[in-house]
Amino acid sequence: MRKVLSVLLVFALVAVCLAGCGDASKSDVSQVVICQLVEHPALDEATKGFEDALKKELGSDVIIYTHVADGSSEACSSIIEEAVNNKVDLIMTNATPAMVSAVNITGRIPIVATSITDYGSALNMRNWNGVTGINVTGTSDLAPIEELKEVILEVKPNVERIGIIYSSSESNSQFQANSMKKLLDEDGIKYEEYAVADDEDIKAVAMKAVEECDAIYIPTDNRISAEADSLVDVFNNAKVPMFGGEEGICRAGVATVSIDYYSIGYEAGEMAVDILKNGANPANMEIKYAKEYTKKYNRSNANKIGIAIPQDYVEIQ
Known about the structure:
With 317 residues, the chain is of the alpha/beta class. The protein is 42% helix and 20% strand.
């Protein structure tokens, strides 16, 4: 398991690690820097998939430098700046803030991203057509919002009001929240929206939401997922089921429609190989999406809340 770099140490350590790789333009070996926003199960799996794809396809012809930015956009920028200064061949970014940092720093080095829900929103592109037109491509972790709405109705068929909690600073979370609101409006289901601005507000917002709603939806959200362990008792004690946009956040929830983060990371790795070996242009490479989804549930939380889960759901291990 890679070591998580603290915000206090990341700036010094990145410089040391990348300085050791020298000028990538002087070597036949491809050099790749990975910038993962924060350590949590979904992103870890995506990074592992990416690394495995590169190692399988390129073997000793690639050197990978992996850094975890401990949730700091500033640390992401430091990692990317050092990568650019050392002229690496490709940058992989894992999660939206990491990708945005890379796009703001370099328009030359290919960027392959993963764990991005909606590239159009993340890159502020109004006329989104599936390709970025810039030095960025990658894979999306967008789970089917409509299927997740159906999961909520299957598990909580008598739901009266759904609380939607998301980070106001994460464009991908807001995109999912807006998509869910649209679907609930179409079905005439009531909801309340709770935007979280700071980490310190997450638990307080969740406590307010369970007082006002009888089910909670939290989309794929790096900030809230990192704090999921602190929310378990909030939902369980209130007997209010939470439905997550991905498996990791369901540490505090009861059910989700889950994609395989290892697979989207691996596919991003294959895209990186195409760029490094075949000279593919990321500007013209279509963003790829997960091909399969699985309805999953958290047995412990469901039992504590006293809610029945349909038999076709797979237990989260």
